[in-house]
Amino acid sequence: MIIVFLGSPGVGKGTQAGLLCAAKGWRHVSTGELLRSAVERGTVLGDRVRTYLDDGKLVPDDLMLALVEETVGGDAQGVVLDGFPRTQVQAEGLDAMLGRHGKGVDRVILLSAAEEEVVRRMLARGRDDDSPDTVRTRLAVYHRETEPLVEYYRSRGLLNEVDGVGEIPAIHRRVMAALS
Ligand code: AMP
After folding, report:
1. Ligand 1, atom nearest to 138 Cα
2. Known catalytic residue: 103?
3. Which residue, 19, 92, 124, 153, has fewest beta-carbon neighbours within 10 Å?
4. Strand partners of residue 35
5. Is 24 a catalytic residue?
6. What is the per-residue pLDDT across 13-66, written as a single tens digit (0 to 9) for each?
7. What is the rounded end-to-end Cα distance, in angstroms, of the chain?
8. pLDDT tens sequence across 65-95
9. Which of 8, 33, 53 maximizes ligand 1 atoms within 8 Å of its Cβ, making it the mutation to test the pocket?
10. pTM score over 0.85
11. Does pLDDT of 105 surpass 70?
12. Ligand 1 atom at minimum distance from 33 CA
């Protein structure tokens, strides 16, 4: 199974992807976490992507596709992609990559919440890239680059929208129900 979590920054993709993977024994691949860890470790990749993360901008597609190919590769048994794809180019690249291994995206979970709510959550969690300016940039980038993927996946019959507002266990039950 290859599952994609789609939704605005701050909507709870990381939390819900983690719970889903714990329940199913799948692998949680968060591109944001991979990038933050590369920055912290000061790897070559980390040095190349640091300013994008600090500014809330998207890391270039070619770097992201290479990172995901390297991480997921051909042996994607049960994988939950959290924070990838984020652009049309990434979505098409992912389809091509999986297609080479006779696979494809099986389901897309769109987590939704009102914008005031995701802003509140991001400012509350206090990650380095959660300053008010960066939050504004990340939301604008989401609307411009990532939101079109909702239609990309809906038109392929892969999309399930899940209400991302409420208690974490309740949202998890909705995610499980959407996949059953
Ligand atoms: P996240 O933890 O998913 O909110 O990602 C944090 C930051 O990592 C984003 O603001 C981007 O700078 C970068 N990032 C994560 N995933 C991607 C992606 N698929 N494409 C481009 N940049 C990404």
Report:
1. 10
2. no
3. 124
4. none
5. no
6. 999 999 999 999 999 999 999 999 999 999 999 999 999 999 999 999 999 999
7. 12
8. 999 999 997 666 899 999 999 999 999 999 9
9. 53
10. yes
11. yes
12. 2
Q: Is 86 in the pocket of ligand 1 (CB under 6 A)?
A: yes
Phi and psi at residue 98, in whole multiples of 5°?
-70, -35
- Reading the block at residue 69, the tokens are 């190919």
Evaluate if residue 126 carries a pLDDT over 90.
Answer: no
In the chain, where does DSSP find H-type helix? 13-24, 31-41, 44-55, 61-72, 88-99, 115-125, 132-141, 148-154, 168-179
Total number of residues shown for the chain: 180
- Nearest partner of 68 among 46, 50, 94, judged by Cα: 94
Q: Is 156 a catalytic residue?
A: no
Reading the block at residue 68, the tokens are 């995901």
- Ligand 1, atom 15, residue with closest C-alpha: 32
